[in-house]
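It is worth pausing here to work through a concrete case rather than discussing structure prediction in the abstract. The textbook approach is simple: state the sequence, then state the predicted structure, then interpret. We follow exactly that order.
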Amino acid sequence: MAYEEKLRAPAKAHHVIMEERSKLSITGVEDVSSFDEDEITMRTSQGNLIVRGSGLHIGKLTLDSGEVSIDGMVTELCYEEVSGGGSLWSRLFG
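Step two, the predicted structure:
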């Protein structure tokens, strides 16, 4: 096991709960990169998550606990894998 893996904090549990396509609750959120009424982009413990729709509004954002709640019409949820990242050594020998 690599030394860097021992130092990493355990990943937060990631859950997505949608109610009637108009309420979305997400846990395991590490950061919200961008947001507007049509698209919200966030980094989660399972990769980047893009929420698309109309009239989107962030009702609750608590990054300490990793919780986000979104209101509005949700039309798409899309995950993007995080590429690269890590130190040069971990990319070469990891």
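Step three, interpretation. The mean pLDDT is 85. The beta strands are 15-19, 23-27, 29-35, 39-44, 47-62, 67-80.
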